[in-house]
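Q: What structure does this chain adopt?
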Amino acid sequence: MNDSGAMEATKAGSAEIHLRHVEMDVLIPKMMREKAKERCAARVEAFNHCCQESGFFMVFKCREENAALKDCLTQHYKDPDFFEACKQEYIQEKTEFERTGIPAKNRQQKLPTSM
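A:
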């Protein structure tokens, strides 16, 4: 590890995983945003519904829904435990990709066609 924070070393099993700056500052926060949207699904749905119903006036009519959605997302973004959980999941996906060469989004267990 260095003082600039550009790389972080993390223990995963017995191997030490080095995370690059882009992983810590871009890829893991992206994962956090996606997971936070899932956790705030009810507020996302309420905001989307309000926007669809309000049309052009959504800026004025959907303030309450927008504020509730922002609060929910911000709560997750600032949670250090949530960041750590996402980081560990990212490390697992990275380790599995390095082992198999298959990206997580393509890693579906396929059943044989002749069952």
